[in-house]
């Protein structure tokens, strides 16, 4: 297993607050500073949300632009991945920032249950977001919360709906969605490798499942995601001191499993992205 491991850091998300963990970065300046530390620790992708002046999730393109500018300035070559998730708006508002042409953007190709609501991704919205990504040459990162999402993503990619190389992230551990189940994880890896051998894949564990899923992914030859969006704790009792600390756990696992950590140049090549300007 010699392929370098790409580490994605989900720096803030739309749910954790400073009351949950004082290390959660909320303002653009805080997010840039936290991303820079995670970049120095080994992350090559920044998964980005933005928040308004009240600290609530929003889809303001101006804030996304400021965040991207700060990341590009302080983290040369780092892959900027915008979130089109549903907590920051509804309908086309969720893709309002795609015209800024980030390197990547998240795309959920199906609906599922979240702890207290339905995460709605109707077919017309999926098609519109995918079309916007194709127009602006933004590579989707498919966030798969269910087996059907993986199979749907494979079909959409073969039909030419999805721009660029197929990149699928298995999201495990969301309450009421797919739990962090090792047998299911192994099945996901096998299904994707058999049906879309050209694809790259990543895995993310939510809450206390984060470190377990990180290890599964790294040991199995895939890529992984960490960060305060997914988990505000190092363990059941200790708050994570930073995004960089969570990235450092992944780099230690890479060393344990003799996986080199991908540089930004290697990550761009693996994902079929243009070299950084």
Structure report:
Helix 1 (28-41) runs parallel beside helix 2. Strand 1 (7-10), helix 1 and strand 2 form a beta-alpha-beta unit. An eight-stranded parallel β-barrel has the order 1-2-5-6-9-10-11-12, surrounded by eight helices. It has a two-stranded antiparallel ribbon with strand order 3-4. A two-stranded antiparallel ribbon has the order 7-8. The radius of gyration is 17 Å and the shape is globular. The two termini are 30 Å apart. 35% of the residues lie in helices and 17% in strands. The protein contains eight helices and twelve strands.
Helices and strands, in order, run as EHEEEHEEEEHEHEHEHEHH
The CATH architecture? Alpha-Beta Barrel
Classify the secondary structure makeup into a structural class: alpha/beta
Model regions low in confidence, pLDDT < 50 over at least 5 residues: none
Return the CATH topology: TIM Barrel
Distance between the termini: 30 Å
Overall strand count: 12
Number of domains: 1
The CATH superfamily label reads: Aldolase class I
Oligomeric composition of the shown chains: single chain
Largest sheet: 8 strands, parallel, barrel
Beta percentage is 15-25%
| Alpha-carbon Rg, integer | 17 Å
